[in-house]
Amino acid sequence: MSAAPRCTMKRFWLALCAAILGFAALAPALTLPVQQPLRLRQLATHRRPPRPKGKWYMASTGHAIYCYGPVMMVGTWDGGFARVATICRGGMPMVKLKD
Question: What is the value of pTM for the model shown?
């Protein structure tokens, strides 16, 4: 009579181990794939390009204007010279400056 419980316990543990191994074999299919970290090249594409450096000037109209190019002396129609800032924000190629 004592042999019967031992045989039943052995079958129970074998069945339990078989079930655990079966679920362990299916576990990789049930989990989400691991995402790889971003490469350095992909991280660099998220940066904004550097803004062009410029300077604020006072236009002859009394408005402040932001220009990227150099300040130059340009001849006027009446034979004089005018100081202008070049390549300004807003698409203006030259803006006469207040002296």
Answer: 0.48
